[in-house]
Amino acid sequence: MAELEPLRSTQAHSRPVACATCGHPTDPLRAVQVAYVAERFRYFCTAECRARYQHQPGLTPLPLPRRRRQPTPLPQLAAPTPSPPLDLAAPTRSLDAATELAPSAEATSAGPGAVPAGDVTALLLSLALLGGALSLALGLVGAGDALALARVVIVIVSAGALIAEYVMGRREAIELHPVALLFGPTASTLVAVLAQLRGHPNASGALGFAATLLMITAGAVWLLARLRRPLELEREHLSAELDVPARRVLGEDTEATSAVELRSGEEIVIDAGETVPADCTTTAGSATVVPWLEAPSLSQRSEGEALVAGARITEGRLRAVVSWSGRDRAWLRLTHDPARRADVHAQLARTGHLIAAQAAPIAAIVAGLAAYATGSDWLVIALAALGAHVALAQAGLTQLGALHVGRAVLAALRRGIVFRSAAALDRASRVTAGVFMARGTLLLGEPEVLAITPFGDHSQEELLALVAGAEGGAASPTAAAVLRAARARGVRPDAVRSPTQHAGLGVTAVSSNGEPLVVGSRALMLRERISVASAEATLSALEALGRSVLLVALDGRLLGVLGLQDGLRPGARAAIQHLLDVGVEPVLLSGDGRETCEAIGNALDIEHIRPEVLPTERAEEVSRLIDGGAVVAVIGRTPEDDAVLTAADVPIALSSAGLGIAEWSIQLASDDVRDAALALRLARRCRSEVRLALGLHVVPAVLGVIATAFGLGPALLAPLLAAGGSAAALIRWRAIEEAAT
Predict the structure, then answer these.
(1) Residue 14 falls inside a structural domain
(2) Structural domain harbouring 550
(3) Cα 159 from Cα 435, distance rounded (Å)
C-alpha cells in the first residue's frame, strides 16, 4: 500500500502530563483512564492507577481562581456629533464616552443623609432575630407576671420588625409571598398573646414557640439575602458591561446612541477597543475579538459570523446587523428579563416554591386534625398546625432551587454558553444521551489524503486525477482534501463531465474518455452494482486506523482506494468525559464505515456508535433514539446539521450565539466541543443539586410533621428539623460556590 506524506499534521498533539497516581508521563488525548475530580481532569496511564487513585486536596495543585470583576460605573453618552462617511478600510478608532457615574435613583430619592434601604432591612431582621432570642432567654430566667409581660412585648416587637422588613424591603421574584412566609410566625405570636391573656397554663411554652419561629424565619431570610448577593452582583456587572454606547448606521453616516435604543435589523459599526452593544451578525469587515464577556481567548470574526453583546473588538473594524437587543440579548435574557428569568421560571427553581405554597397549608390542616383527633386542647391544636406550616413554608425551601439555577446560568455564561430559555435548561437537565456529529465536532473536519492504493496497472497519479476531477465541483472537506493532495503532487484533475453529488455517498460522473466514473463509499458502489470484494482487505486495514475511504470505479471496474485521515479536535476526549461523569451516554453518529467509527470510538471511550448514516437519515436516527426512551441532545453546527439538530430534544449548536433566526436550546459563542458538553454537565449537576437540597429540607420537615401529628414529639420538632435540613443545604450551596470562585 502506497502512503503519502501528510500535508500537515491531522492528529491533535498535546504536552504529556504526569499520571495522577504514579507520575508516569501520559498523553492526555490517549490516556487509558480519565477522571474529573475537584474541577480538574486527572489522567492515568493504566486502569490499575485509576483504581488506586485517592484524591488528596493538600497535594493536588488546583488552578488559581479567576477573580470576578466588580461592576463598573455606567458610562454617560456624549452628545451626538456628526460622523464621517463609513469606510471599512479606514484606520480604526475608539468611541468617546464619558465615564462619570450618575447617582442611583434610590440614593437620589432618599435625600442626603438617608440610611440605605439595605441597612434598614438588615436592622429590622436583626431586631426580629435578637428579640426572639431575648424572649427565649427570659423564659429560662423564671416565671412571673412581669417577665411574662416583657416576653409578650418583645415577641410582638419582633413580629412587627419582621413584618416591617417585608413592607419596606425590596422583594425578589424568587421569594415566597410574604403572606405565606409570615403567616406562621405572626399567627403563632397572636396565639401566644391570646393564651397569655386567657391565662392558659402552657402560655409560656406558646411564647417560646412563637419566639423560635420568629428566629427561624428572620435567620433564614437574613442568610439567604447574604447568599444571593454574589449572584446579584454578577447580574449587576452584566448589566453594567452591556450598557455601552453604540453607533447606528444612517445612510453613509453614523449616529451615536445607547445599546438599549438599538432595534433588530438596524446596522451598527464597531471599532477596535469598543464593546459590541447587541447580538448581531457581521456584514462587512474583519476583526480580532474577545468573543464574550471575559472570554479567556481571542478569535477572528468576519462577514456572515455572529457576535454576542459584550464581545470586545481588539483589532479591526466590523459592520453588523442587530439580531437581538435590549433584554432579548443572550447575556440578559435569562438573567434580567422578569418574564424569562431562569431562576424564576425554570421548573427546577419553582419546585421548592410550589411545595412551600401548596404543601404547607395541607400539612397544617393534617397536623391540626390529627391533634384534634387525639383530644388536645385548642392551644396544642393551633401550635401543631402552625409548626407544620412553618416547617414547609420556609424561605430556604423556596429559594434553594432558584439559587442553584441562577448559579448554573451564570457559570454557563462565563464559558460562552447560552441557554435559550428556562424550559431549555430544564430539558437539558434530563438529557440521557448526547449525540455528536463526528465531522466538525469530535473531528477537525479537515481531512488529509494519507493513502492511495491503485489496483491493477493504474498509477497513483491517474487514480488521484480521476477523484480530483469528480470532486472538483463539491464544497466539502473531502473534496478540499483531494484537491490539496492533487496540487501537492502536481496532478491535473481529469476533465470529467456531468458530476452528480449524492449526499453522504459520493459522486457519479463521466470521465474525459467517456466512461462512467463512480467515486464514493461502499454503499454507492453497491447501488451502482460494482463489486468491492477485491478491496475488502485494503478497506479493513484503512478503517482499522480510523481512516475514511473513497472507492474509485471506472466503467464498472474498481480502480483503487483513497484513505483520508481526520484529526481529533482538541478537547474531544474532555467533552466525552464531561458526559460520562454525569451519566449521559455519548453517541457517535457518522457516515463513515463501522470500523472507522469503532476506531474513533475506542480513542474517545465512546461505546455507542451509529455508523454509515447518511445526512438525510440522521434526523430519523435521532428520532429512533428518542422513541427508545432517551432524552437526546445533539451537538452539531448550523447550518450543516440543522436537520438533525431540529430532531433533537436539546439541540446544541456551536458558534451560534447571537444568530437572529436559530432557536436552538443551547447556543455557544465558541466552537469548543468541550463547552457544548459542559452545558449538559452544568444542567445535570444543577438538577441533582436541587433535588438533594430539596430532600435535605423536605424529608426532615415531613418526618417532623408526622411525629407531631401522632403525638411523638412537640410542635417545635417539625420547624426545627426543617430549619436544620435547610441550613445544611444552604451550607452545602455556599461551599460549592466558594469552590467554584
Answers:
(1) yes
(2) 448-565
(3) 55
pLDDT of residue 629: 92
- At residue 621, the pLDDT reads 93
Tally Cβ neighbours within 10 Å of residue 146. Answer: 8
- The C-alpha cell that represents 224 in the structure block: 439567604
In a domain, residue 507? The reply is: yes
Write phi, then psi, for 725 (nearest 5 degrees). -65, -40
pLDDT tens track for 55-70:
554 333 333 333 343 4
pLDDT digits (tens, 9 = 90+) for 194-206: 988 888 888 888 8
pLDDT of residue 244: 92
**Nearest CA to 591 among 522, 536, 528, 526?**
522
Residue 207 CA to residue 620 CA, distance in Å, equals 67
SS3 sequence of 288-336: EEECCCCCCCCEEECCCCEECCCCEEEEEEEEEEEEECHHHCHHHHCCC
CB 11 within 8 A of CB 570: no
Here the cell at position 183 is 403567616
Q: What single-letter DSSP state applies at residue 597?
A: H
> Last residue of some domain: 318, 333, 348?
333
Does residue 9 sit in helix, strand or coil?
coil
Helix 422-429 × helix 673-709 angle, to 10°: 80
Q: What is the CATH number of the domain that holds 503?
A: 3.40.1110.10
Boundary of a domain, candidates 301, 317, 333: 333
Query: What confidence score (pLDDT) does residue 424 get?
Result: 95
C-alpha cell recorded at residue 523: 454503499
Contact 699, 725 (CB under 8 A): yes
Compute φ and ψ for 33, nearest 5 degrees.
Answer: -135, 145
The residue ranges of the chain whose pLDDT is under 50 are 1-13, 57-115
Number of domains in the chain: 3
Q: Assign 580 to helix, strand or coil.
A: helix
Contact between 238 and 60 under an 8 Å Cβ cutoff? The reply is: no
Identify the CA nearest to 670 among candidates 425, 328, 307, 284: 307
User: The sheet that has 585-589: what strands, in order across it?
Assistant: 417-419, 666-668, 650-654, 632-637, 433-437, 585-589, 608-610
Contacts of 79 (CB under 8 A, 6+ apart): none
Q: Residue 290 domain-assigned?
A: yes
User: Within 10 A of 637 (CB to CB), how many other CB atoms are there?
Assistant: 18
Q: Which residues pair with 271 in a beta bridge?
A: 317
Residue 229 lies in a domain: no
> How crowded is residue 498: how many other Cβ atoms within 10 Å of its Cβ?
9
**SS3 assignment, position 10:** coil
Residue type present at position 575: A
Sequential DSSP letters for 489-517: TTPPPP--EEEEEETTTEEEEE-TTS-EE
